[in-house]
Amino acid sequence: MGKKVLFFGDVGIDDTIALIYAHLTDKIDVIGIVADYGNVPRVETTRNVRYILQRMGRTDVRVFGGAARPMTGEVPTFYPEVHGPFGLGPIKPGLEPKELENFFEVINLIEQYKNELIIVNTGRLTSLATLFILYKDLMKNVQSYYIMGGAFLYPGNVTPVAEANFYSDPVAANIVTRYAKNVSIFPLNVTQNAIVTPEMVHYIHFKGKTQLVKPLLDYYYYQFYQKKVPGIQGSPVHDALTLMAVDRDDLFTYYKSAVGIDTTDVARGQSIGDFRLTDTPDLFDGRPQHRIAIGLNYEGFYREFMTVMTGEPF
Asked: Where is the Inosine/uridine-preferring nucleoside hydrolase domain (predicted)?
């Protein structure tokens, strides 16, 4: 079996691509999913997770109900224009609400897979931050953290400086970056380059290992991005890239820095690292150093993604 992953996500289109990728590779074993608010309300996220697991024949995976709103106390803003009214583009899961496992049952998983468990967080960081507030010592048992979020020295996708996951709950993002150790962060400046072209989608669909990629990417996600980013050649799979890094660390170039998240008005959600090359004082109040992905080997990404999604070597 592959590396043990507890997945936190606001499961929309790119989270779904990530979960399909994990299902089709033997290098990653998703043992639990925390369904959070984010792309859509939590009730839709939980439906999406159950639908995806049914389609993959993995109803054995434990699903936990995560956060419904941010630590700021605000009413969440959702993005149906990006992920569709239900979070899966043109797909309507059509499942009745179902009681999920208590969120705090994730503690048992962390204890069961002590020093082996990897946490991958591709959505808002509210649920993960909650664990650090209540169980800081327990979280030291987690082997490592892979987080999709931020935009370092790069334009944001919600404001000129902020990416959606950090912007939507900057309080939670600050808690995680302050207390978590062995963290790898995958910001927009890298994930935006993980492009899946329509030609790639067509071939994946033709090979038939999954029939979900084409409706999610070609029929919805790519159309949004063509309007949002003129000239873009396909759909960036932010979350799949972050999950891929669990086993394919070699695809990335990293920079190490402590990280802070701005919580003020205009700069809210801005991710700040120290990229200066001179010897400077510590401006981060003793925060731990994190790995920030700053470069992607696209050819390596292409080969890995297509090999896993089609079942044939590239």
From this structure: 6-302
